[in-house]
Every structure is written in structure tokens, then in C-alpha cells.
User: Which sequence fits this backbone?
């Protein structure tokens, strides 16, 4: 069961209804991706997406996503499929994959300029591949197959980073939901299952924030200003990224009071566990965007499997 709007926070920190706009697909059913083929190992990344405004403002963050897409293209990295795990699609106890041919663009926020609501990301889905993956992957909780969803689409955790990165929107995109009621280690275990997909042409993207406390945001704060607890938690995550002790990221609720301040709800942290779980042994991260938004959001991001 999807929690849908219950996972969406408005600009002011409250719950907000959202709109779902669809665009017609120019692809015939037989032109959609039918199966994944063996490939060189794709990178896996976690992106701090921050404010939705980053997609329309000329921020450092937006420029970094654009540059990352250009780097991937220049290095000949051509994903067959992008699998995105976004902080904004929460389900109760089951995992789900978007299974439609033309996913909708979801504007899951409120109180922003019309220009933001006008943004569309018309990338195709991959229904047949979704069906295959739903059968291949299984719940670490009870072993059940994944569900196929026909109602969700691309929320802003997905399209706000993919639009600057892959503006032509030609690569098929699929979202994987997160069962919010399950223990963090179960999310990491699902990430472990995703590792093999990297060698089948799948670019895995986790989109959230390492620190995310909307109620504590300071609108006038500069990129290098943050609360002590923001810096402390952000540093503790970085230490685990550097050491390669990625499984320990799932114990974050035991790290002390700074964890609860960094994540009053941990929906924005969980995508990191999927990306970390998909990392192969010995892969070192390239960390970037090591700054803050509004003192209470860490934009720290990491990519594995992309040589310098």
C-alpha cells in the first residue's frame, strides 16, 4: 500500500497535496526496453537533492548534476535503465516498482513558483523489465516478490536530479519504493540485491539527504553554515563512507541524539542505504557537494564505480 501524499513535505514543513501530470509517450510498446543485457559495471550514486528549487535555479548543486551527466556520457557510460530510490516514495511494508510505460511527473510539494510545477520529465518506463525484476528481487523481510505499481511515477526526488543530468530524458527510468515501517538494515539488504543489476546496464541512484530537518532550516544560512549536530552527523556518515564500513550506516539510529536531530523522520536517509548496499567490495567513493542548505540539510553526495 502506497503512503503517497503522506510522504510529501511542503516548503513550510507541513504535509501538502500534490499534482500528477502525465505526458504522452512517443514510443510504441515494442520500442520500450524489453530486457536487460550484460554490460560493463554501471556506477551507483547517492545524491543529496535538497530543495526542489535546485532544478530551476542556477545553483552549484544543479551544475554538479549537469556535470556528472556530461562526465558519464564523455566516458561512454550508457545505462540501459536508471533505477531510482527516492526519499519521496514510501510504502508500508512491501517494495514496489513503477511498472508503467510512461510514468507521470509528480509535483509533490507546495508553495513554490509556477515554473517549478511546469517542469516535466518524460522519460519512458520499462514495463516488461519491471515485471522481470519484480519476480527476480525479493523482500528481505519475508521473501515475497516485489509489487508492480501503475499509479506512482517520478516524484521530485527523481526528476529534480535526472533532469539536469540527462535532460533529453531518453533513458528508461524506474522507481523503487521504500517500505518505511521496516528496520534500516532491511533497506541495506535490498541494496545488496541491487548490486548485480549494475552489470546488466542499470545505473542505480539514491536520492535523499544525509541530514534533513525541515523544521530547523535557516533560510538565510550560507552553504558553509550548519548546526553542530548537522556537522556531527554528516561527519559520522563520511567516516563510514571513507572506511568502507557501509553496513554500519544502517545503525544510524544508535549513534546518539544527533541522529534524531538530523532525521526527525528518516525517509531522506534511507536512499543512502540502497546505494551503499549496491557497492561492490573494494569500491571507493568519490564524494562531492560537501556543503549544506539552510543549515539543516546536508548535500553530501557520493558515487562509486566512476573512475576519476
Assistant:
Amino acid at each position: 500500500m502506497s503512503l503517497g501524499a503522506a510522504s510529501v513535505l511542503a516548503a513550510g514543513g507541513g504535509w501538502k497535496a500534490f499534482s500528477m501530470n502525465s505526458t504522452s509517450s512517443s514510443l510504441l510498446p515494442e520500442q520500450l526496453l524489453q530486457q536487460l543485457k550484460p554490460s560493463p559495471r554501471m556506477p551507483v550514486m547517492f545524491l543529496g537533492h535538497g530543495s526542489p528549487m535546485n532544478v530551476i535555479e542556477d545553483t552549484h548543486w544543479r551544475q554538479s548534476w549537469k556535470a556528472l551527466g556530461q562526465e558519464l556520457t564523455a566516458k561512454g557510460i550508457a545505462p540501459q535503465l536508471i533505477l531510482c530510490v527516492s526519499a519521496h516514495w514510501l510504502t508500508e511494508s512491501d517494495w514496489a516498482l513503477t511498472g508503467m510505460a510512461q510514468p507521470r511527473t509528480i509535483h509533490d510539494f507546495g508553495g513554490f513558483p509556477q515554473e517549478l510545477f511546469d517542469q516535466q520529465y518524460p522519460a519512458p518506463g520499462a514495463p516488461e523489465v519491471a515485471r522481470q525484476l519484480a519476480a527476480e528481487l525479493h523482500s528481505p523481510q519475508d521473501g515475497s516478490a516485489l509489487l508492480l505499481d501503475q499509479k506512482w511515477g517520478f516524484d521530485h526526488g527523481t526528476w529534480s536530479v535526472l533532469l539536469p543530468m540527462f535532460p533529453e530524458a531518453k533513458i528508461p527510468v524506474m522507481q523503487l519504493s521504500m517500505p518505511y515501517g521496516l528496520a534500516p538494515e532491511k533497506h541495506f539488504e535490498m541494496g545488496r540485491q541491487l548490486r548485480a543489476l549494475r552489470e546488466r546496464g542499470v545505473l542505480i541512484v539514491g536520492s535523499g539527504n544525509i541530514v534533513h530537518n525541515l523544521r530547523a532550516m535557516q533560510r538565510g544560512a550560507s552553504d558553509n553554515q550548519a548546526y553542530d549536530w548537522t556537522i556531527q552527523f554528516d561527519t559520522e556518515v563520511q567516516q563510514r563512507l571513507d572506511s568502507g564500513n557501509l553496513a554500519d550506516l544502517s545503525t544510524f539510529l544508535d549513534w546518539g541524539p544527533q541522529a534524531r536531530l538530523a532525521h526527525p523522520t528518516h525517509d531522506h536517509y534511507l536512499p543512502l542505504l540502497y546505494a551503499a548496499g549496491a557497492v561492490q567490495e573494494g569500491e571507493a567513493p568519490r564524494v562531492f557537494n560537501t556543503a549544506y542548505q539552510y543549515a539543516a540539510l546536508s548535500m553530501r553526495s557520493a558515487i562509486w564505480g566512476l573512475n576519476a
In short: The longest strand covers residues 202-208. Residues 228-243 form the longest helix (16 residues).
